[in-house]
Design brief:
By secondary structure, the chain is of the alpha+beta class. About 30% of the residues are buried. It is built from three helices and eleven strands. The longest helix has 18 residues. Helix content is about 15%, strand content about 30%.
Length: about 270
């Protein structure tokens, strides 16, 4: 499956360069963003719905956007926010993670859906990387999950033709769920629409469904200002909202699960 790159100005059938092909068109200075609604529906042990609006970026980590100096505080993509946090670039961290699982992209293109730092703060509950080989074909997807305790963990996914993949839960996220169960993730690459779904199935049935729905928007300087005004300090508000909803659930009597000793950096198994 060859996937067009929404961050490129090149036509869709010119995604991958082959020997003898002319050079690809230059990338846009303004990668797309997706104003979106994120919804969590918890079904056990008590039904509860959390919903908030934000916006995500779809970028090429090899060529992060160059914003005007006056706007750089509104969107920064920092390597320390991803993977081990000690690599010189996000792409280097991704390549190291994939190499640990025997995967090489051989220079293939990556699309990264993420939250940017805003005025120095970032919280990325989920960052997705669609990883392609040099022929433009999708080789895998990496789902990088962060919890509110400063921890992070990556899941290596091999979606089917419908964009669906499964993975055992290995990382402590919600204080009300232990580290058990299995995820079913629908992660088709974004185009005009962003449409992601994550189910958590535990013994006894479905425990949680999370969805991300949005529509692609080109981001010029003026559009970025509008997004920032509509969703001021979006990462901080998202982090605060999760904590507020957690307090509400605790006050409603949901028992807190003990955190495992490796809740910050569990072994990055697939």
């Amino acid at each position: 499956m060859v996937i067009p790159d929404p961050t490129s100005t090149a036509p869709a059938d010119r995604v991958s360069a082959r020997p003898g092909d002319p050079p690809p068109a230059p990338r846009s200075r303004h990668p797309p963003s997706y104003p979106c609604t994120i919804t969590h529906v918890r079904t056990t042990p008590r039904r509860y719905t959390l919903r908030h609006r934000t916006y995500l970026w779809l970028i090429d980590p090899d060529r992060p956007p160059r914003l005007p100096r006056a706007l750089r505080g509104l969107a920064r993509f920092d390597p320390r926010d991803h993977f081990t946090g000690d690599r010189t670039s996000v792409r280097a961290g991704l390549d190291d993670f994939l190499a640990g699982h025997g995967i090489r992209l051989d220079g293939g293109r990556v699309l990264m859906l993420t939250q940017a730092r805003v005025f120095g703060y970032v919280f990325n509950p989920l960052t997705l990387y669609w990883c392609h080989g040099p022929d433009g074909r999708l080789r895998c997807v990496v789902a990088e999950v962060h919890n509110t305790y400063g921890g992070r963990h990556c899941y290596l996914l091999h979606p089917d033709t419908a964009g669906t993949a499964r993975a055992d839960k290995r990382f402590y996220v919600s204080p009300f769920f232990p580290v058990d169960g299995r995820y079913r993730m629908r992660v088709p690459p974004p185009d005009h629409r962003l449409d992601l779904t994550v189910h958590l199935d535990r013994e006894g049935g479905r425990a949680l469904t999370a969805t991300v729905r949005g529509t692609r928007r080109a981001v010029s300087g003026a559009a970025l200002l509008r997004l920032a005004l509509r969703h001021p300090w979006a990462p901080l508000l998202a982090s605060a909202a999760i904590r507020v909803h957690g307090i509400r659930l605790y006050l409603r009597g949901l028992p807190v699960q003990p955190r495992p000793h490796d809740h910050r950096t569990p072994e990055n198994a697939p």
